[in-house]
Design a protein that fits this description.
The chain has 191 residues and is mainly α. The chain is 85% helix and 0% strand. Keywords: Coiled coil, Membrane, Transmembrane, Transmembrane helix.
Length: 191
């Protein structure tokens, strides 16, 4: 059923029935058919498309509401995903900062140690393979994926953390310089 709806939505959109296509995508074909009081063929002919265009013009306000609602939901979903990503990055930064502030050597060295371990194991697999010893490809692939994740988290995360720190320092300096400018100006000190 879903491929039929996708095909129908594409057909409608390509033939200038964007409002109808958006409403069908947002609410479903059966719902829109019940609201506009007409059947929408799964594979509309040219004659059907002309009739649907007339219905679209007549029902433009209703279809706009459904299409607008769909766009609002998409925007909300995008905002939610962006907020979740930002919160995730922020949490990782806070975890890493608390690890570095800890007295435990293990918490300070777990990320670099994991990176060294994975790179050493990968090098060992490469050397064994070069000596003709057959290593199961699944282990090599898994270790490679872990290496990518750890490197991305370690180096990428540190970059994000440093950028975050630079922005915080930059905004604090701007606030401080504005405060100094305003306080100097108010006290009569020439700038």
């Amino acid at each position: 059923m879903i491929p039929i709806i996708t095909s129908l939505v594409q057909t409608l959109a390509v033939n200038g029935l964007g409002l109808l296509a958006g409403a069908v995508q947002a609410k479903g074909k059966e719902f829109i058919e019940s609201k506009i009081g007409a059947r929408i063929p799964d594979n509309p002919s040219q004659e059907d498309l002309i009739k649907l265009k007339q219905l679209e013009i007549e029902q433009e306000q209703l279809l706009l509401q459904y299409t607008l609602k769909q766009k609002e939901l998409e925007i909300e979903e995008s905002k939610l995903l962006a907020e979740m990503h930002r919160a995730s990055q922020e949490n990782a930064t806070h975890r890493w900062q608390s690890d570095m502030g800890s007295d435990s050597k293990l918490s300070k060295n777990i990320r670099p140690g994991t990176l060294v371990y994975i790179l050493t194991a990968y090098l060992l697999f490469a050397l064994l393979s070069a000596m003709g010893i057959d290593i199961n490809e699944a282990y090599v692939r898994l270790l490679g994926e872990w290496g990518q994740l750890v490197m991305l988290a370690y180096f990428g995360g540190r970059s994000v953390e440093k950028i975050f720190e630079m922005r915080m320092n930059s905004s604090n300096k701007k606030k401080k310089s504005r405060h100094e400018w305003f306080s100097g100006r108010a006290s009569g000190i020439p700038y």
